[in-house]
Amino acid sequence: MTxxxxxxxxxxxxxxxxxxxxxxMMLPIALIVIGAFKGKREFLKSGPFDLxxxxxxxxxxxxxxxxGGMLQAFANTSIILVIxxxxxxxxGAFAAYAIDRFEFRGRAVxxxxxxxxxxxxxxxxxxxxxxxxxxxxxFNTRWAAILxxxxxxxxxxxxxxxxxxxxxxxxxxAAALEGAGHFRIFFQIILPMLKPAIAxxxxxxxxxxxxxxxxxxxxxxxxxxGVISTSLFRFMGPYGxxxxxxxAGILIVLIPTLLAFLFLQRYIYSGFAAxxxx
Length: 278
Hints:
- By secondary structure, the protein is an all-alpha fold.
- It has 14 helices and two strands; from the N terminus they run αααααααααααααββα.
- Helices cover 74% and strands 1% of the residues.
- The radius of gyration is 24 Å and the shape is globular.
- The chain starts with a helix and ends with a helix.
C-alpha cells in the first residue's frame, strides 16, 4: 500500500467515524420528533421510526403546554436562572479578584479547599445539604434552588481566576495612585475586562440550570414551583407514561436552548478556546 493510498484510507475512516457518530447523536432527536406528532394509540402500535400519519397534528404540544403548566414553569425557570447566574458571576468574579490580587494568610489553603470541593461527588453531601436548606427555612421555595446553584460553582471561580491573572497589575496600581479604592478598581477596571469570562460562565451556568432536574425536583416539590425540567415529569405515572406528550414537551423545552446556542455559539467556542489556552 502506497503512502497516498494509506492517507486516503485514513481520511475515509475519519469521515466514516464522524458520520456514524453524527447519525448516532441525531437518532434520539429524530425519534422524539416523530413521536411528538403521533396519537397515543398510533405511538403504541407503530415502530419508533415509523412516520406519523398526520404531521399537522399539534394536539400533543397543546396538551404538554397546558396540562404540564409550562408557562408557569418557564416563569419559574427564568426567575431562578437570572438570579442564580447573576449571583454566580458576582461571587465568582469577587472571589477570583480577592484570591489573585490580595496576599493573605491561608491563601494556598483556600485554593486547595476549592480544588478539594471539585473532587467531592455532590451526591455524597446531599443529606447534609438537605438538612442545611431545611434549617434555613427555604425548603420548597425558589431560594433553595437559587442558593444551591450560586454556592456550588467552583468552576466559574477558576474560569475568572484564569482571566484575571492575564490582566496587568499595573492597571490596578495606576488606578490606586489616582485615588481609586478596591471596589472602584474592581467594577470600573477588572469587571469590564472580564467580558469573555462572563460570557463563558453565563452560557455554561445558564444551560446547566435550565437542564437541571435533581435540585428542583428534590427541593421544590410544590406543583406551583415546577420548572421546565420537572414539568415533563408530570406525564409519568405509576401505571404508565404519556410518551407522545413527553416527546412534544421535550421539543418545546429544546426551542429556547437551540435558539440560545445558535445566537451565542460564537461566544461559546471563543470562550472555551480562550479558557483552554490561558
